[in-house]
Amino acid sequence: MNIASLEDDPVQAALIESCLTKAGYSCTVFHTGKSLLTTLAKPHDFNLLVLDWEVPDVSGLDVLHWIRDNQGYALPVLFLTSRTDESDLVVGLQAGADDYMTKPIREGELVARVQALLRRMNPITQSNEPFSFGVYDIDPINNIIKLHGKEVVLAPKEYELALLLFRNPGRLFSRDVLSTAVWNREIPATSRTLDTHLSNIRRKLQLRPENGVRLNASYALGYRLESLLDNETT
User: pLDDT value at position 138?
Assistant: First the structure.
């Protein structure tokens, strides 16, 4: 897998390259947005882009706009930013970023987010074989989720939501994506349907740190199931 990294700070660029190379990826570093755009405008074999927002000549946000306007949404993009305001993160996601990570860079998190994006964009044929996620056992054939070996009773839509989250650990889902995936339609922001279902699965499945998981929720950004264990799945 080939990854392009846009980062003007030499120390940060070296850190990103080192992290991804150690994880088994090929990483090409670009120090200016213009040089990256010049390369992207030609045939290339990049599988994913890691874009720093704050680049002096052509910002990562401008690069992202160009990619989505000219090359569509096939190429996954991970945004790296020092900005922590929710409004800024919303801008990046609405511009077409698939995920974001705030600085300082944490090696394990960077690799995990890259892996999650590559799995999502280049999926292996989805299997209905049972799988485990920490203390949870999921059986997609029989629509069963067990916690510590005991089946948890879920309503049909609660189960679909939980299965989607367990199959995509670390992925940030917007409200629209979740509602379309589970209800086949967008649910109005004024409706509490999605929030109620997410609250129910958090409570019923005890999605909390003592069970090695956390369901992060932001009304504006979306929802992400995070593993707090070293080994997310088996």
Answer: 95
